[in-house]
Amino acid sequence: MLKEVTTDRLYTHVICENMKSFVNILREQQDTAFPRLSDSTWKREELLRALLVGFAVWLLRVWLQKFVFSKGFQKYSVRLRRKLSENLYYSIAYCLSFACGLITLTLEDWRVDLRGPLLVELWSPYPPPLSTFFRSYYVVELGYYLGSLVFLLFSDTKHSDFLEFCIHHVATILLIYISYSFRYVRIGLVILVLHDASDILLYSTKCVYYIGFRPLDSIMFTAFAVIFYFTRLFIFPRIIWGVAVDIIRLILRNHSFSGFASNWPVHFSHYFICLFALSTLELLHCFWFSLILKMIGRVIFASFEKLREEGDIRSDDEDSEQ
């Protein structure tokens, strides 16, 4: 017991000393003449292009669901046809988004080792150079999520986690906007690719389930649960830790690291806003994984007939369907 208390006191002392050193570094390095990164924010034409992408996404989805998908699902009921069209659209959209994210990552000259002690590649150099393709990727992602939020609010099937999905989309839009404005684009790129990986399986699994392909739906759902856990509850917290702690450790090692300490009032206002958005997303991930565990429990302990009758753990709002 005495050894544990001594160890705790030692850790507390080390943390306090590091924080004192960190505060002193900020005071010594602050330079009021340091550039305010005003040229790093979204340009007006980029925001306009994002809005145009959102409108184009809306038109494309309406056309696909009304004239393409509906013809392939004629034998199903109107309600089921709507669900199948909706989930098929998202399956294709997230496949394309995932592919674009991987291409963007491949074209970059940096790689991040998530197993490393420090995620230096996400922070150095700062601000990072942005290729035309990288900028276009961000514009399209912002436009896509703006369009998706409109559909979520006014068109998509309403589920019991409708509020959580709205918060998720708003937090994602905020994250895309601020990561580009603050030039945390490398962090944003990695996060978007991680999210797309599990979203592809989520919506394609629901399509298979609604069509009635057994037991393929259960196999795909198991794969989705594993990938969701690995990307959003294992890797994603490492990204949050990299944002919350690694930058402080890097400044302690190198006082002039990427100029953060020189203009710390601006950088740390960015830091806390970004950390808030990431933490909000992670809380939602924990909530959704609890639903996934409930569904797994239903598969294990209930009969498949009962599973078919009850359907998705995210129950539909019948009133909104009428």
UniProtKB/TrEMBL annotation:
GO MF terms listed in the record are: sphingosine N-acyltransferase activity
Q: What is its main location?
A: membrane
The residues forming a coiled coil are: none
- In what residue span(s) does the TLC domain sit? 75-301
Cellular component terms per the entry's GO annotation: membrane
Regions that span the bilayer: 47-68, 88-107, 136-155, 162-180, 223-248, 268-293
List the subcellular locations. Answer: Membrane
Carries keyword Transmembrane?
yes
User: How is the protein disposed in the membrane?
Assistant: Multi-pass membrane protein
**GO annotation, biological process:** ceramide biosynthetic process
Its keywords, alphabetically, are:
Membrane, Transmembrane, Transmembrane helix
Q: Is Lipid biosynthesis tagged as a keyword?
A: no
The record's section on PANTHER family has: LD18904P (PTHR12560:SF0), LONGEVITY ASSURANCE FACTOR 1 LAG1 (PTHR12560)
Q: What is this protein called?
A: Longevity assurance protein LAG1
Lineage from the top down? Answer: Eukaryota, Rhodophyta, Bangiophyceae, Galdieriales, Galdieriaceae
